[in-house]
Amino acid sequence: MRLSLSQLPALKADQRPAYQPESHGVGILHIGLGAFHRAHQAAFTDTALGAAGGDWRIASVSLRSVQTVEGLAPQDGLYTLIERGAEGDQARVIAAIAQAIAATQDPEAVLRLMARPEIRVVTLTVTEKAYGIDRTAMDIDADHPAVSADLKAPEAPSGVLGLLVEGLRRRRASGHPPPAILCCDNLPENGVLLCAGVVGFARRIDPDLADWIARTVAFPSSMVDRITPAATDETRARALALTGFDDAAAIETEPFTQWVIEDNFPLGRPAWEEGGAIFVKDVAPFERMKLRMLNGAHSLIAYAGFIAGYRYVRDAMTDPQLAALVDRHIRAAARTVGALPGIDLDSYRQDLITRFANPSIAHETYQIAMDGTQKLPQRILAPAQNALAEGQDIAPYAFATAAWMRYATGRDDQGATYELRDPRAEELAQAVKEAGRDPVALYARFAALPHLFPDALGRNPAFREEVISRLALMLKDGMAAAIAKEAT
I need a surface site. Which of 127, 150, 177, 480 has the fewest CB within 10 A? Predict the structure, then answer.
């Protein structure tokens, strides 16, 4: 039997929403209908609705794929969220999504929603590469395919920035105040970055609109955290066993979840704090903690683990030598974070080790390894530069950087090739073609790629030699040997 609103009473009390979904209107437009959104923002919103009510259900948009929309539509937007921990699995049905839209099928529906006054918050989870923002210039990347296309036809957009700007233009024309626009992607100062992209795009087509956006639209920053692997057939089978209902949109995640949000919502917001969200004036220190300690270690596991033959993070963490390097990396990253009010960094470190080793979460190293050129600067290179300036040990960052370079060659230790799935894959491939397997040449070409390595770090002799020596061993004797030597 398929999940639907009419079937909610048949669920166990602790599995069904603590509110009547039909009694609550839509107040949030979300762009990026992926598994993370459904495990994180939608789950927080579901808890908020149950605790405090309000018209805060979500109209959620998939920018490219139609598969998730097709799974949710026959289920009235319902789906099963399975939390998988060492103590077993728990399931709850989320009813926060009132409407699922495929932008490729009906882009006008997205724009109509943004113009509606009841939409008071717009949230996004689209990954960094979808935005088309040049962080160095704090402006649009005019060469980004979606940005370029939307600048030519701004009233019929398909990309993120184009949709936001046209939606805000219609909102302004209608005389309604603008919604707060909340980025929930793993990007430092994501609100500031998104504001720069939206204003930059608007300025190319309508300077008055750009000024209005800069003056009136709130772009709060946020830090998000919840490991959410891709759903599989086993996920759906697990949902059926736990709830008794077929669910084409079921997802699974870890028990841990975290959301730190800059409290800047002129038109109001859901009571997300009921789900554990923390509202602060400045998100930046929390972002730095998460990017460097969690995401940096995750990237280390992804690159070293994948090349060493580990499919999942949990498998990599069964390797005591690699696990020791992960712990070393987190400790080193913590030294670049500094004191954080209300946070015990050592307890956070221990939580990370436990989460990475969770035997119930099948998070693929290959999935985490994608988009490395977008992730490496914030996760690895920035703390490496801080550590170098403070006279701290740079070995953890040198090893992680070398592991990324080894991964970026596109061939594992058994000689099998794989797709890098990186927006700069062609540049990386050209660098590898020119350098071959020469570690000195590889470092020189990777470090010289524009807007990747901080100049001072890439040219630093000590960092250069530390990376090259490790990369040489990875290329000559294999990743397992490099891990073993590093861990001794």
Answer: 177
